[in-house]
Fold this protein.
Amino acid sequence: MKYKKKPDWLKMPSRGAEEAARIRSILLKYSLATVCRQAKCPNLGYCYQHGTATFLILGNVCTRSCSYCAIGPAPDRPSPLNPDEPERVAKAAEEMNLSYVVITSVTRDDLLDGGAGHFAKTVKALRDKIEGVGIEVLTPDFKGNHAALDTIAEANPDVFNHNLETVKDLFSAVRPDASYDLSLSILALYGKLSPSTPLKSGLMLGLGAQDDDIRKAILDLRSSGVTMLTLGQYLQPTRRHWPVDRYVTPEEFDNWKEFALSEGFNSVASGPLVRSSFHAELNYSSEVDSG
Protein backbone atom coordinates (compact mmCIF):
# COMPACT_ATOMS: atom_id res chain seq x y z
CA MET A 1 0.00 0.00 0.00
CA LYS A 2 1.42 3.37 -1.02
CA TYR A 3 1.46 6.32 1.32
CA LYS A 4 -0.53 9.36 0.25
CA LYS A 5 1.80 12.23 -0.60
CA LYS A 6 1.86 14.72 2.25
CA PRO A 7 0.80 18.30 1.48
CA ASP A 8 3.02 21.28 2.25
CA TRP A 9 1.24 22.03 5.53
CA LEU A 10 2.47 18.71 6.94
CA LYS A 11 6.16 19.47 6.61
CA MET A 12 7.83 18.15 9.73
CA PRO A 13 9.96 20.34 12.00
CA SER A 14 13.67 19.67 12.23
CA ARG A 15 15.17 17.47 14.94
CA GLY A 16 16.80 20.48 16.52
CA ALA A 17 20.35 21.00 17.61
CA GLU A 18 21.96 21.70 20.97
CA GLU A 19 18.85 21.72 23.18
CA ALA A 20 17.41 18.62 21.49
CA ALA A 21 20.70 16.82 22.08
CA ARG A 22 20.53 17.80 25.77
CA ILE A 23 17.03 16.36 26.10
CA ARG A 24 18.00 13.12 24.37
CA SER A 25 21.02 12.75 26.66
CA ILE A 26 18.86 13.19 29.79
CA LEU A 27 16.35 10.61 28.60
CA LEU A 28 19.19 8.21 27.84
CA LYS A 29 20.82 8.88 31.21
CA TYR A 30 17.66 7.88 33.06
CA SER A 31 16.68 5.09 30.61
CA LEU A 32 13.29 6.63 29.91
CA ALA A 33 10.93 6.15 26.99
CA THR A 34 8.88 8.93 25.43
CA VAL A 35 5.71 8.68 23.41
CA CYS A 36 7.39 11.19 21.11
CA ARG A 37 9.81 8.53 19.90
CA GLN A 38 7.80 5.35 20.43
CA ALA A 39 4.73 6.68 18.60
CA LYS A 40 6.77 8.35 15.84
CA CYS A 41 5.39 11.80 16.64
CA PRO A 42 6.07 14.30 13.85
CA ASN A 43 6.79 17.00 16.44
CA LEU A 44 9.62 15.14 18.18
CA GLY A 45 12.34 17.46 16.89
CA TYR A 46 10.34 20.58 17.65
CA CYS A 47 9.52 19.55 21.21
CA TYR A 48 13.01 18.30 22.04
CA GLN A 49 14.42 21.51 20.62
CA HIS A 50 12.11 23.45 22.95
CA GLY A 51 13.23 21.43 25.95
CA THR A 52 10.24 19.18 26.50
CA ALA A 53 9.05 15.61 25.98
CA THR A 54 6.14 13.39 27.01
CA PHE A 55 7.15 10.53 29.28
CA LEU A 56 5.93 7.02 28.43
CA ILE A 57 5.72 4.81 31.50
CA LEU A 58 4.77 1.17 32.17
CA GLY A 59 7.09 -0.18 29.48
CA ASN A 60 7.31 0.33 25.74
CA VAL A 61 5.11 -2.49 24.43
CA CYS A 62 1.31 -2.51 24.57
CA THR A 63 -1.19 -5.23 25.46
CA ARG A 64 -3.57 -3.94 22.76
CA SER A 65 -3.31 -3.73 18.99
CA CYS A 66 -4.85 -0.48 17.77
CA SER A 67 -4.52 -0.25 14.00
CA TYR A 68 -3.29 3.36 14.00
CA CYS A 69 -0.59 3.20 16.67
CA ALA A 70 3.14 2.83 16.07
CA ILE A 71 3.86 1.46 19.56
CA GLY A 72 4.53 -2.25 19.24
CA PRO A 73 1.87 -4.63 20.59
CA ALA A 74 2.97 -7.61 22.67
CA PRO A 75 -0.14 -8.86 24.52
CA ASP A 76 1.65 -11.98 25.76
CA ARG A 77 4.99 -10.34 26.57
CA PRO A 78 4.35 -7.15 28.55
CA SER A 79 7.37 -5.43 30.06
CA PRO A 80 8.03 -5.92 33.78
CA LEU A 81 7.36 -2.82 35.86
CA ASN A 82 10.39 -0.86 36.99
CA PRO A 83 9.74 0.25 40.59
CA ASP A 84 12.25 3.08 40.30
CA GLU A 85 10.72 4.50 37.09
CA PRO A 86 8.63 7.18 38.91
CA GLU A 87 11.75 8.54 40.59
CA ARG A 88 13.70 8.48 37.31
CA VAL A 89 10.92 10.42 35.59
CA ALA A 90 11.01 13.01 38.37
CA LYS A 91 14.80 13.36 38.22
CA ALA A 92 14.73 13.73 34.44
CA ALA A 93 11.92 16.31 34.57
CA GLU A 94 13.86 18.31 37.15
CA GLU A 95 17.02 18.18 35.05
CA MET A 96 15.04 19.23 31.98
CA ASN A 97 13.75 22.25 33.96
CA LEU A 98 10.14 21.32 33.29
CA SER A 99 7.40 23.28 35.03
CA TYR A 100 4.65 21.19 33.37
CA VAL A 101 4.96 17.44 32.85
CA VAL A 102 2.83 15.13 30.71
CA ILE A 103 2.83 11.44 31.62
CA THR A 104 1.29 8.79 29.41
CA SER A 105 1.61 5.03 29.12
CA VAL A 106 1.08 1.96 27.06
CA THR A 107 -2.08 0.01 27.92
CA ARG A 108 -1.43 -2.68 30.52
CA ASP A 109 -4.43 -4.99 30.60
CA ASP A 110 -2.22 -7.60 32.31
CA LEU A 111 -2.10 -5.54 35.52
CA LEU A 112 -4.99 -5.65 37.98
CA ASP A 113 -5.11 -1.86 38.24
CA GLY A 114 -4.04 -1.24 34.64
CA GLY A 115 -0.99 0.59 35.95
CA ALA A 116 -2.94 3.26 37.84
CA GLY A 117 -0.79 2.82 40.93
CA HIS A 118 2.35 3.40 38.87
CA PHE A 119 0.82 6.60 37.48
CA ALA A 120 0.05 7.75 41.02
CA LYS A 121 3.60 7.02 42.20
CA THR A 122 4.97 9.02 39.28
CA VAL A 123 2.73 11.98 40.08
CA LYS A 124 3.87 11.87 43.71
CA ALA A 125 7.55 11.61 42.75
CA LEU A 126 7.21 14.66 40.52
CA ARG A 127 5.47 16.71 43.22
CA ASP A 128 8.14 15.72 45.74
CA LYS A 129 10.95 16.68 43.36
CA ILE A 130 9.66 19.86 41.65
CA GLU A 131 7.84 22.50 43.66
CA GLY A 132 4.70 23.81 41.98
CA VAL A 133 4.97 21.49 38.98
CA GLY A 134 1.91 21.10 36.76
CA ILE A 135 1.08 17.49 35.88
CA GLU A 136 -1.10 16.09 33.13
CA VAL A 137 -1.84 12.38 32.90
CA LEU A 138 -2.91 10.78 29.62
CA THR A 139 -4.27 7.39 30.61
CA PRO A 140 -5.71 4.27 29.00
CA ASP A 141 -9.29 3.26 29.83
CA PHE A 142 -8.29 0.81 32.63
CA LYS A 143 -11.08 -1.43 31.28
CA GLY A 144 -13.48 0.82 33.15
CA ASN A 145 -11.97 -0.09 36.53
CA HIS A 146 -13.43 2.43 38.98
CA ALA A 147 -10.80 1.67 41.62
CA ALA A 148 -8.07 2.56 39.13
CA LEU A 149 -9.73 5.92 38.47
CA ASP A 150 -9.99 6.47 42.23
CA THR A 151 -6.24 5.90 42.47
CA ILE A 152 -5.56 8.51 39.77
CA ALA A 153 -7.96 10.99 41.35
CA GLU A 154 -6.30 10.59 44.75
CA ALA A 155 -2.95 11.43 43.13
CA ASN A 156 -4.57 14.73 42.05
CA PRO A 157 -3.01 15.53 38.65
CA ASP A 158 -3.77 18.98 37.25
CA VAL A 159 -5.33 17.58 34.07
CA PHE A 160 -6.91 14.19 33.36
CA ASN A 161 -6.60 13.24 29.70
CA HIS A 162 -8.06 10.19 27.98
CA ASN A 163 -8.20 10.24 24.20
CA LEU A 164 -11.28 9.12 22.32
CA GLU A 165 -9.13 9.08 19.14
CA THR A 166 -11.89 8.44 16.58
CA VAL A 167 -15.63 8.45 15.89
CA LYS A 168 -18.10 5.76 16.89
CA ASP A 169 -18.55 4.25 13.42
CA LEU A 170 -14.80 3.64 13.05
CA PHE A 171 -14.05 2.71 16.63
CA SER A 172 -14.33 -1.08 16.43
CA ALA A 173 -12.05 -1.18 13.39
CA VAL A 174 -9.47 1.31 14.59
CA ARG A 175 -9.53 0.39 18.30
CA PRO A 176 -10.85 -3.21 18.41
CA ASP A 177 -9.95 -3.79 22.08
CA ALA A 178 -11.57 -0.59 23.32
CA SER A 179 -15.05 0.94 23.40
CA TYR A 180 -16.33 4.36 22.35
CA ASP A 181 -18.97 4.40 25.08
CA LEU A 182 -16.53 3.17 27.73
CA SER A 183 -14.07 5.95 26.91
CA LEU A 184 -16.81 8.54 27.28
CA SER A 185 -17.94 7.00 30.56
CA ILE A 186 -14.36 7.04 31.91
CA LEU A 187 -14.16 10.77 31.29
CA ALA A 188 -17.56 11.43 32.84
CA LEU A 189 -16.79 9.30 35.89
CA TYR A 190 -13.47 11.01 36.50
CA GLY A 191 -15.25 14.35 36.32
CA LYS A 192 -17.48 13.20 39.19
CA LEU A 193 -14.53 11.88 41.20
CA SER A 194 -12.55 15.11 40.79
CA PRO A 195 -14.90 17.94 39.73
CA SER A 196 -12.20 20.61 39.90
CA THR A 197 -9.81 18.79 37.52
CA PRO A 198 -10.10 19.72 33.83
CA LEU A 199 -10.93 16.83 31.50
CA LYS A 200 -9.11 16.60 28.20
CA SER A 201 -9.51 14.37 25.14
CA GLY A 202 -8.53 14.26 21.49
CA LEU A 203 -9.54 13.04 18.06
CA MET A 204 -7.51 12.14 14.98
CA LEU A 205 -8.97 13.39 11.71
CA GLY A 206 -8.26 11.84 8.33
CA LEU A 207 -9.12 8.25 9.28
CA GLY A 208 -12.25 8.24 7.15
CA ALA A 209 -14.86 9.82 9.41
CA GLN A 210 -17.63 11.92 7.93
CA ASP A 211 -18.22 15.45 9.21
CA ASP A 212 -21.47 14.48 10.95
CA ASP A 213 -19.63 11.74 12.86
CA ILE A 214 -16.85 14.13 13.89
CA ARG A 215 -19.41 16.68 15.01
CA LYS A 216 -21.18 14.02 17.10
CA ALA A 217 -17.92 12.87 18.70
CA ILE A 218 -17.06 16.43 19.69
CA LEU A 219 -20.53 16.91 21.18
CA ASP A 220 -20.31 13.56 23.00
CA LEU A 221 -17.01 14.63 24.56
CA ARG A 222 -18.50 17.93 25.69
CA SER A 223 -21.52 16.11 27.15
CA SER A 224 -19.09 13.92 29.11
CA GLY A 225 -17.60 17.00 30.76
CA VAL A 226 -14.53 17.50 28.59
CA THR A 227 -13.42 21.13 28.34
CA MET A 228 -9.99 20.69 26.70
CA LEU A 229 -9.90 19.29 23.16
CA THR A 230 -7.15 18.42 20.68
CA LEU A 231 -7.74 17.72 16.99
CA GLY A 232 -4.91 16.58 14.72
CA GLN A 233 -4.17 14.85 11.44
CA TYR A 234 -3.72 11.09 11.52
CA LEU A 235 -0.44 10.00 9.91
CA GLN A 236 0.09 6.36 8.97
CA PRO A 237 3.17 5.08 10.85
CA THR A 238 3.91 2.14 8.51
CA ARG A 239 2.28 0.36 5.59
CA ARG A 240 0.88 -2.18 8.05
CA HIS A 241 -1.22 0.44 9.78
CA TRP A 242 -4.61 1.97 9.02
CA PRO A 243 -4.32 4.02 5.81
CA VAL A 244 -4.82 7.76 5.68
CA ASP A 245 -8.18 8.49 4.09
CA ARG A 246 -7.36 12.12 3.37
CA TYR A 247 -5.37 15.09 4.58
CA VAL A 248 -7.59 17.59 6.35
CA THR A 249 -6.78 21.19 5.42
CA PRO A 250 -5.71 23.82 7.95
CA GLU A 251 -8.88 25.76 7.13
CA GLU A 252 -11.01 22.75 8.11
CA PHE A 253 -9.12 22.43 11.38
CA ASP A 254 -9.84 26.10 12.05
CA ASN A 255 -13.53 25.49 11.40
CA TRP A 256 -13.59 22.56 13.82
CA LYS A 257 -11.93 24.74 16.45
CA GLU A 258 -14.59 27.41 16.03
CA PHE A 259 -17.32 24.77 16.29
CA ALA A 260 -15.85 23.25 19.46
CA LEU A 261 -15.43 26.64 21.12
CA SER A 262 -19.01 27.51 20.23
CA GLU A 263 -20.13 24.34 22.01
CA GLY A 264 -18.48 25.30 25.28
CA PHE A 265 -14.93 23.95 25.21
CA ASN A 266 -12.49 26.24 27.01
CA SER A 267 -9.29 25.16 25.26
CA VAL A 268 -9.12 23.79 21.71
CA ALA A 269 -5.90 22.97 19.88
CA SER A 270 -6.76 22.10 16.30
CA GLY A 271 -4.35 21.73 13.39
CA PRO A 272 -2.62 19.19 11.17
CA LEU A 273 0.38 18.71 13.48
CA VAL A 274 -1.50 19.01 16.77
CA ARG A 275 -1.03 16.05 19.09
CA SER A 276 -2.50 15.39 22.51
CA SER A 277 0.47 16.72 24.47
CA PHE A 278 1.72 19.28 21.93
CA HIS A 279 1.95 22.67 23.70
CA ALA A 280 0.14 21.04 26.62
CA GLU A 281 1.23 23.69 29.12
CA LEU A 282 -0.06 26.47 26.87
CA ASN A 283 -3.39 24.67 26.44
CA TYR A 284 -3.66 24.23 30.21
CA SER A 285 -3.04 27.96 30.66
CA SER A 286 -5.91 28.67 28.27
CA GLU A 287 -8.13 26.36 30.32
CA VAL A 288 -7.20 28.09 33.58
CA ASP A 289 -7.74 31.54 32.07
CA SER A 290 -11.20 30.46 30.89
CA GLY A 291 -12.14 29.01 34.28
Notes: Residues 258 and 268 are 9 Å apart (CA to CA).
